[in-house]
Amino acid sequence: MSTDQPTAPEGDEPHEPTQEELVAAEMLRRLIVTPVRDVVMQTMATFTDMAAIRLGLGPRGDTDFNIEQAGLAIEALRALVGVADTAIGAAAARPFKEPLAQLQMAYTDAVENPRPTAGADGAAGGQPQAGEGGIWTPGGGAKAGGGIWPPGDKP
Protein backbone atom coordinates (compact mmCIF):
# COMPACT_ATOMS: atom_id res chain seq x y z
CA MET A 1 0.00 0.00 0.00
CA SER A 2 1.43 3.30 -1.06
CA THR A 3 0.60 6.81 0.18
CA ASP A 4 1.80 10.19 -0.95
CA GLN A 5 2.37 11.31 2.63
CA PRO A 6 5.82 10.60 4.08
CA THR A 7 5.77 8.84 7.38
CA ALA A 8 7.82 9.97 10.33
CA PRO A 9 10.40 7.51 11.57
CA GLU A 10 9.53 5.85 14.84
CA GLY A 11 10.25 8.05 17.83
CA ASP A 12 9.93 11.31 15.85
CA GLU A 13 6.26 11.80 16.58
CA PRO A 14 5.11 15.36 17.22
CA HIS A 15 5.27 16.32 20.89
CA GLU A 16 4.81 19.30 23.15
CA PRO A 17 8.08 21.24 23.38
CA THR A 18 9.89 20.91 26.69
CA GLN A 19 10.75 23.92 28.82
CA GLU A 20 14.38 23.62 27.66
CA GLU A 21 13.30 23.64 24.00
CA LEU A 22 11.13 26.71 24.59
CA VAL A 23 14.00 28.54 26.32
CA ALA A 24 16.41 27.59 23.51
CA ALA A 25 13.92 28.81 20.88
CA GLU A 26 13.49 32.13 22.72
CA MET A 27 17.25 32.58 23.01
CA LEU A 28 17.63 31.92 19.29
CA ARG A 29 14.85 34.39 18.49
CA ARG A 30 16.57 37.08 20.59
CA LEU A 31 19.91 36.45 18.90
CA ILE A 32 18.25 36.79 15.51
CA VAL A 33 16.46 40.08 16.27
CA THR A 34 19.05 41.83 18.48
CA PRO A 35 21.40 44.09 16.53
CA VAL A 36 25.07 43.25 17.10
CA ARG A 37 25.66 46.96 17.70
CA ASP A 38 23.46 46.76 20.81
CA VAL A 39 25.40 43.79 22.14
CA VAL A 40 28.74 45.54 21.56
CA MET A 41 27.54 48.67 23.36
CA GLN A 42 26.16 46.69 26.32
CA THR A 43 29.34 44.64 26.52
CA MET A 44 31.48 47.79 26.65
CA ALA A 45 29.34 49.08 29.53
CA THR A 46 29.68 45.73 31.29
CA PHE A 47 33.48 45.68 30.90
CA THR A 48 33.66 49.27 32.18
CA ASP A 49 31.77 48.31 35.33
CA MET A 50 33.67 45.05 35.80
CA ALA A 51 37.06 46.75 35.51
CA ALA A 52 36.11 49.42 38.04
CA ILE A 53 34.80 46.83 40.49
CA ARG A 54 37.91 44.66 40.08
CA LEU A 55 40.06 47.75 40.75
CA GLY A 56 38.31 48.12 44.10
CA LEU A 57 36.25 51.10 42.96
CA GLY A 58 32.89 49.42 43.31
CA PRO A 59 30.41 49.61 46.17
CA ARG A 60 32.27 46.90 48.14
CA GLY A 61 35.67 48.58 47.81
CA ASP A 62 38.74 46.36 47.96
CA THR A 63 36.67 43.27 48.75
CA ASP A 64 36.44 42.68 44.98
CA PHE A 65 39.96 43.86 44.07
CA ASN A 66 41.58 41.57 41.48
CA ILE A 67 44.28 43.19 39.35
CA GLU A 68 44.43 40.37 36.79
CA GLN A 69 40.66 40.46 36.19
CA ALA A 70 40.75 44.26 36.02
CA GLY A 71 43.47 44.13 33.38
CA LEU A 72 41.53 41.63 31.30
CA ALA A 73 38.35 43.73 31.45
CA ILE A 74 40.30 46.89 30.52
CA GLU A 75 41.98 45.21 27.56
CA ALA A 76 38.66 43.80 26.34
CA LEU A 77 37.09 47.25 26.67
CA ARG A 78 40.03 48.83 24.80
CA ALA A 79 39.58 46.36 21.94
CA LEU A 80 35.83 46.90 21.75
CA VAL A 81 36.21 50.69 21.81
CA GLY A 82 38.46 50.35 18.76
CA VAL A 83 35.94 48.10 17.03
CA ALA A 84 33.06 50.42 17.88
CA ASP A 85 35.01 53.47 16.70
CA THR A 86 35.72 51.85 13.34
CA ALA A 87 32.61 49.75 12.67
CA ILE A 88 29.82 51.59 14.48
CA GLY A 89 31.12 55.16 14.50
CA ALA A 90 33.07 57.56 16.64
CA ALA A 91 29.89 58.84 18.31
CA ALA A 92 29.16 55.36 19.67
CA ALA A 93 32.69 54.87 21.03
CA ARG A 94 33.11 58.38 22.45
CA PRO A 95 31.22 57.78 25.75
CA PHE A 96 33.64 54.96 26.58
CA LYS A 97 36.94 56.66 25.77
CA GLU A 98 37.18 58.77 28.92
CA PRO A 99 36.18 55.93 31.28
CA LEU A 100 38.71 53.69 29.51
CA ALA A 101 41.46 56.25 30.06
CA GLN A 102 40.47 56.60 33.73
CA LEU A 103 40.45 52.82 34.18
CA GLN A 104 43.86 52.53 32.53
CA MET A 105 45.25 55.18 34.91
CA ALA A 106 43.66 53.48 37.94
CA TYR A 107 45.11 50.15 36.79
CA THR A 108 48.59 51.66 36.41
CA ASP A 109 48.29 53.21 39.86
CA ALA A 110 47.20 49.87 41.35
CA VAL A 111 50.16 48.09 39.75
CA GLU A 112 52.68 50.74 40.82
CA ASN A 113 51.22 51.09 44.35
CA PRO A 114 50.16 47.61 45.45
CA ARG A 115 47.39 47.34 48.02
CA PRO A 116 48.50 46.60 51.60
CA THR A 117 47.78 43.06 52.68
CA ALA A 118 44.85 42.47 54.99
CA GLY A 119 45.59 42.70 58.70
CA ALA A 120 44.66 40.19 61.36
CA ASP A 121 41.08 41.47 61.40
CA GLY A 122 40.80 40.98 57.62
CA ALA A 123 40.49 44.69 56.85
CA ALA A 124 42.95 46.26 54.47
CA GLY A 125 44.91 48.94 56.28
CA GLY A 126 44.03 52.42 55.09
CA GLN A 127 41.95 51.08 52.21
CA PRO A 128 38.28 51.80 51.59
CA GLN A 129 35.79 49.53 53.26
CA ALA A 130 32.57 48.29 51.72
CA GLY A 131 30.48 51.17 50.43
CA GLU A 132 33.37 53.65 50.30
CA GLY A 133 34.58 52.92 46.77
CA GLY A 134 33.47 54.75 43.65
CA ILE A 135 32.44 53.41 40.26
CA TRP A 136 32.20 55.11 36.91
CA THR A 137 28.76 56.25 35.91
CA PRO A 138 27.72 58.23 32.85
CA GLY A 139 27.81 61.95 33.40
CA GLY A 140 31.28 63.20 32.60
CA GLY A 141 33.56 63.43 35.57
CA ALA A 142 33.34 63.22 39.32
CA LYS A 143 32.07 66.81 39.69
CA ALA A 144 29.11 66.05 37.43
CA GLY A 145 28.27 62.82 39.23
CA GLY A 146 30.20 60.51 36.92
CA GLY A 147 33.77 59.37 36.59
CA ILE A 148 36.07 57.30 38.72
CA TRP A 149 37.30 59.07 41.78
CA PRO A 150 39.72 57.96 44.45
CA PRO A 151 37.87 56.51 47.44
CA GLY A 152 37.14 59.21 49.98
CA ASP A 153 37.10 61.97 47.32
CA LYS A 154 33.49 61.42 46.31
CA PRO A 155 31.48 64.50 45.42
The level of helicity is 40-55%
List segments where confidence is low: pLDDT < 50 over at least 5 consecutive residues: 118-155
Number of strands: 0
Task: Tell me the fraction of residues in β-strands, as a range.
Answer: under 5%
* Count of helical regions: 4
Instruction: Describe the largest sheet.
Output: none
Distance between the termini: 85 Å
Mean pLDDT: 79
Shape: elongated
Report what the structure shows.
With 155 residues, the chain is mainly α. The chain has a domain at 42-113. The chain has 4 helices and no strands. The chain has helices at 19-33, 36-54, 67-88, 90-112. It is elongated and about 65 Å long.
What's the SSE blueprint?
Elements: H1 19-33, H2 36-54, H3 67-88, H4 90-112
Q: Brief overview, please?
A:
This protein has 4 helices and no strands.
Please give a handful of descriptors for the protein shown.
mainly alpha, 155 residues
